[in-house]
Design a protein that fits this description.
Blueprint lengths: L1 H21 L12 E5 L5 E6 L11 E5 L4 E4 L5 E6 L5 E5 L3 E4 L4 E3 L4
Parallel strand pairs: 1-7
Antiparallel strand pairs: 1-4, 2-3, 2-5, 5-6, 7-8
């Protein structure tokens, strides 16, 4: 009798899990495009990126450590991505295909002349 209850419980969890996964179809495709991000400080920084539609910043798409004066390509899904710098906790919304410089406090968009 207890075996049947356990089997039933597992089946219910599996069906509920499938419903959650079906609602997250956008996670099945990889992100395209990137933001060029320059750490213009004298220390290593840690950043996380989040999908454009992830307003609560629930699951990071990418986590990176960036050395001083290093440029990296950061990505997440969407035309704009959220970038969070761990130490300051600041969040920056950046447009893909654009270069940004982080000075330790703010992110500055590179101006093309």
């Amino acid at each position: 009798m207890s075996q049947q209850a356990i089997d039933f419980g597992v089946k219910v969890l599996t069906e509920e899990g499938q419903k959650v996964i079906d609602g997250l179809q956008f996670l099945y495709t990889p992100a395209e495009g990137s933001v060029s991000f320059l750490n213009d400080t004298d220390h290593v920084i840690e950043v996380k990126t989040y999908d454009e539609k992830d307003a609560v910043r629930w699951v990071a798409y990418e986590e990176r450590k960036i050395a001083p004066r290093q440029v990296v390509q950061l990505t997440a899904r969407g035309k704009r991505i959220h970038i969070v710098e761990r130490k300051s906790g600041c969040t920056f919304d950046c447009e893909k295909g654009t270069a940004y410089l982080f000075d330790g406090t703010n992110v500055h968009k590179k101006v093309i002349h």
